[in-house]
Amino acid sequence: MKILTCVKYVPDAGDEVGFESDFTLGRTGPSSKLSELDEYAVEQALRLRATIDGATVTVLSVGPAEAEVALRKALQMGADEAVLVSDEAIAGSDVFGTAAVLIAAAGYLDEVGLVMCGMSSTDAGIGALPALLAEALGWPLLSNAAEVSVEAGQARIVRSDEFGTRVVEAALPAVVSVTDQSGEPRYPSFKDVLAAKKKSVTTIGLAELGVEAALVGAGAARVQVTAVVRNPERAAGRVIVDVDGSSVDDIVEFLAAATK
Amino acid sequence: MGNVIVLVNATSDVVDAASAELLTTGAGLGSVVAVVPGGGSDALVADIAQYGAAEVHVVSCPQLSDSLVVAKAALLVERAAETHASIVLVASGLEGNEVAALVAAKLGAGLVTDAVAVRADDGELVVDKVVWAGKYTVTAKVVAPVAVLSMKANSCVAVVAPSQPEVRQAHFDFAAPAPTARVTSIEPAATSSRPKLVEANVVVSGGRGTDGDFAPVEALADALGGAVGASRAAVDAGFAPQPLQVGQTGKTVSPDLYVALGISGAIQHIAGMRTARQILAINSDPEAPIHRLADLSVVGDLKVIVPAVVARLG
Ligand SMILES: Cc1cc2nc3c(=O)[nH]c(=O)nc-3n(C[C@H](O)[C@H](O)[C@H](O)COP(=O)(O)OP(=O)(O)OC[C@H]3O[C@@H](n4cnc5c(N)ncnc54)[C@H](O)[C@@H]3O)c2cc1C
After folding, report:
1. Which of A10-14, A40-44, B216-220, B269-273 has the lowest mean pLDDT?
2. Is the pLDDT at A20 greater than 80, yes or no?
3. Which of A181, A251, B65, B262 has its CA 20 to 30 A from that of B279?
């Protein structure tokens, strides 16, 4: 059984990458990388692999050629193989376009028994993809898991959200997404990095997947970006250096004014 | 712009703050059909009427509590179809965003999650969203006939505008078209005597710099009648529970006053509190990034300063 782990190549939150003229985010910043929230998905996929007989981990990304960087990182962490879907026609897709490509890729790969995702991308931050994948595949959705386990073909998650903490279960195949509470992602060792060099990244396009170009890309998007504005940074205020509580008067005065 | 479905999650006999904001936002866009899944009391319906709804649909659904998001989404899809709604509004959150996604998928609608503003402009629906750890605001227009939006808390001020809505009781049986997940146990979210984090006027948060002692954080929050928050490092270390986390993968707060105690000010934390009106930071490191955006920055030891401040406020 393959554990198909969907990952995104994103700019680092600290990068100064701008937006393109068509308002799509410049994907290739100086330190663009595997989305940190997807590292949690790779980590949990690897931990599950160790508990499921015959399981392997395939990482899958939709993005530009540079997205290989993200897949390489996942291979270094220990994933078995990597697939990149890259096609000019995909640029500017909304979440439904991206979902259509991922769903086709899940069908293209054999023996997928579990799809793993992070909770959200760190750039667009939509948080919708796992639900869309489950819906389209007709598989149960076990999303935003803080804990996940698989036993005898049954997946079980613990999820905490605005409605409390719930245990949710389903038989495989299923779609699971994990939060940043699910367990710290491993850091690849030098040996892991060397071993990953032998693994390959397979790149495919829409034609191989049989996805019509008209279904994806900016033209098919149901939401069109019309403007992007940089939010003003907050300016630094007054700084005081406290010596043995010398700032207390100033603080009390500030609190009184702020809560008036 | 026609009918606007507003999802109201009934947690008590009063409309929660997020739903009140949605009802106000919806009323500004069209004729509001408030949908209460799982049943709601007469008192709740009366409270919904405070915010200008044209209709209230109270929809029972036996499958709601043991299914994760899918039954609620299907229920909304049915209501949206029946009322020919052109807009569906839900509150942001892990569940809200997924419900929005599933409803949009079924309706072939445009989807924006975590929107902070929405307006009709020349017959088009225009939505603002803050992305990339708070750095940019993206404006987008929905080009599909139906729009499904999840709205961040504090996107608008709820306005009381009483109406006399038509109230309908309905029933929805969720017949899953495919295998779905089952909820096998539920533990309701812990309640606190303090104000809710996202609604509070004052939030006092503690970070790794508290060294695990949240007593000063709580004492200052209580002295100011505020809510307690935490950084992810504090949550990861077990100093505070995850629902109190402020930031990119936690709550977004927009209080009058935000107090950061022993928090360095990482970009992902700032993403959750950057719109606070006033910020006070106490951090012993003069180079901590939080000092670059606080209105009052105190370079010092929180363990010395906070108890002294609390004593003075007491
Ligand atoms: C994808 C992603 C999502 C994330 N989401 C979030 C999120 O939602 N929320 C969040 O908070 N973080 C988030 N983070 C983590 C974030 O990057 C930081 O690691 C985290 O915010 C640091 O928490 P902290 O400020 O408490 O700890 P630190 O960065 O360790 O800072 C502790 C501070 O305490 C100060 N200090 C120590 N002792 C004292 C003392 N006695 N008195 C005063 N000051 C003292 C130190 O000077 C230091 O500045 C996320 C990270 C990633 C990658």
Report:
1. A10-14
2. no
3. A181
Of B108, B243, B298, the CB nearest to A240: B298
B142 and B89 both lie in a single domain: yes
- Nearest-by-Cβ selection for A125 from B105, B131, B304: B131
What distances in angstroms separate CA B160 from CA A28, B101, B154, one per listed residue?
47, 29, 16
- Average pLDDT (B74-83) is 98
Total Cβ atoms within 10 A of residue B204: 29
Mean pLDDT for chain B overall: 95
Instruction: Please check the confidence at residue B103 and state whether its pLDDT lies above 80.
Output: yes
Q: Is the Cα torsion angle B49, B51, B57, B60 positive or negative in sign?
A: negative
Q: For the segment B247-266, what is each residue's pLDDT rounded down to a tens digit?
A: 999 999 999 999 999 999 99
Q: For residue A50, what are its two tokens?
A: 């160790």
- Is residue B187 included in any domain, yes or no? no
Q: Are residues B73 and B220 in the same domain?
A: no
Q: What is the pTM of this model?
A: 0.95
B215 touches chain A (CB under 8 A): no
Q: Which of B264, B257, B153 is nearest to B206 (CA)?
A: B264
A3 contact partners, CB below 8 Å, separation of at least 6: A45, A48, A49, A52, A55, A56, A57, A58, A112, A113, A114, A115, A116
Give the integer Cα–Cα distance in Å for A149 and A50: 11
**Closest approach of B308 to chain A, Cα-based (Å):** 7
- For B257, nearest residue in chain A (alpha carbons): A258
pLDDT of A155 above 70: yes
**B217 and B109 assigned to the same domain:** no
Whether residue B111 lies inside any domain: the answer is: yes
d(CA A118, CA A80): 18
Q: Specify the CATH number of the domain A2-220.
A: 3.40.50.620
Residues of chain B in contact with residue A14, where contact means CB-CB under 8 angstroms, are: 267
DSSP class of A19? B
Pairing of strands A2-6, A112-118: parallel
Residues 6+ positions from B52 with CB-CB distance below 8 Å: B23, B24, B27, B32, B159, B161, B162, B163
Note whether B240 and B281 are within 8 A (CB).
Answer: no
| Domain, as residue range, for B293 | 202-313
Could you give the ipTM of this predicted complex?
0.94
DSSP-assigned beta bridge partners for residue A82: A59, A201
> Sorting pLDDT into bands at 50, 70 and 90, what band is A162?
confident
**pLDDT tens track for A168-182:** 999 999 999 999 999
Structural domain includes residue B194 = no
Residues of chain B contacting A237 with CB distance shorter than 8 Å:
279, 294-297
Per-domain residue ranges of chain A: 2-220
pLDDT at B1: 67
